[in-house]
Amino acid sequence: MKQAIVARTDIGMGTGKLAAQVAHASLEAYESAGPDARREWKSGGKKKIVLQAGGERELFELAEQARREGLPHAVIRDAGHTQLDPGTVTTLAVGPAPENLVDRVTGDLSLF
Amino acid sequence: MKQAIVARTDIGMGTGKLAAQVAHASLEAYESAGPDARREWKSGGKKKIVLQAGGERELFELAEQARREGLPHAVIRDAGHTQLDPGTVTTLAVGPAPENLVDRVTGDLSLF
Description:
The structure is a homodimer.
Chain A: E1 2-8, H1 15-32, H2 35-43, E2 48-53, H3 56-68, E3 73-77, E4 89-97, H4 99-106
Parallel strand pairs in A: 1-2
Antiparallel strand pairs in A: 1-4, 3-4
């Protein structure tokens, strides 16, 4: 089991901002997962990886793939209090789900 | 309501590594919070800030303060599969809790 969190590289998020957006996505996708997936992921060490996407369109395409695969996922928009315009899409989390299923969606992306 | 996540600056975590450790801490502290705190934080937009700490000792001192204040909190150790030695303490999350209580613990730290 793992969770992959994909963050945009094209909007100049600072390190702290990026980390907060990754955490938002992680929690939201986690909460949309079923109880079995949650439990299994937690007992397996809560594996998380953070990956790169070049833009908004790529993020939405990945989200659509996750939806088609039936995987828990969440797209995060920034409230825009700092750094970014309100509503800017920043991150996507996919999983927790079996690794091979997550890899079908995010397997081609580079590690952040 | 807010959650503060404190990350060490002295262990050379890469951006993706740091974001994953922040997300671990965020989820773990969230799960240790009571249902009212969770609900209130979620309805208020899940405010999160990411802050800096200079080392392990500072992180443990902050965790001890959070404990004394009765705030949900979590200290994260890295499994050490990559980058860091196994068991390295990386991050601390405090909250979700009322902002003024979180600030008693983390109010003097710099934004990441």
